Amino acid sequence: MSALITASVGFEDGSAYMMARILGLPGAYIQQADITSIAFDVRRSDGSSVISGTLDKTAVIFDTLETTDSRWNDQKPAGDIGHNMAFNALATWFPDGGEVYTVEVLIVPATGATLQVPVHWKHSTVNRFSS
């Protein structure tokens, strides 16, 4: 599986929709059956933890590429269409403005290597006027 790092910007105390296209071995897109577990960890730029937990693979991994979501297609180069992982990062994960959070997802494959595949999102927050 391959690691991925993407960037996004949002408001403090605001949710973010995280999407990725993840390849497994031997170069095919991952599917739910390929995965044992998915864990996530959110950290501030100083490394301190905000929250960690697990994600339900049946809710966040798609067995075929999702190709009709304009949130993905509008931000990628032409021909780079579709994602096979997506989830809503809750507003409580990003409590402070002016911060860069790292959302790391570790995917543990069901068979083969015991490799844990990190997927990283760098999410920068801006202050709300009302804060």
Question: Can you describe this structure?
Answer:
This protein is mainly beta. The protein has one domain (4-126): Immunoglobulin-like, CATH 2.60.40. 6% of the residues lie in helices and 47% in strands. It contains 2 helices and 8 strands. It has helices at residues 57-60, 70-73; strands at 4-11, 16-20, 35-43, 49-55, 61-66, 83-89, 100-109, 117-126. The strands form 2 sheets. Strands 1-8-7-3-4 form a 5-stranded mixed sheet. Strands 2-6-5 form a 3-stranded antiparallel sheet. A hairpin with a 5-residue loop joins strand 3 and strand 4. The radius of gyration is 15 Å and the shape is globular. The mean pLDDT is 84.
**Rg result:** 15 Å
What count of helical segments does DSSP give? 2
- Which residues form runs of ≥5 with pLDDT under 50? none
In what range is the share of β-strand residues?
over 45%
What is the straight-line distance between the termini? 41 Å
Helix/strand-derived category reads mainly beta
Helix content: under 10%
Counted up, domains total 1
Looking at how many chains there are and whether they match, the oligomeric state comes to single chain
- What's the total number of strands? 8
- Report the CATH topology name: Immunoglobulin-like
Sum this structure up briefly.
The protein has helices at 57-60, 70-73; strands spanning 4-11, 16-20, 35-43, 49-55, 61-66, 83-89, 100-109, 117-126. The chain has 131 residues and is mainly beta. It has one domain (4-126): Immunoglobulin-like.
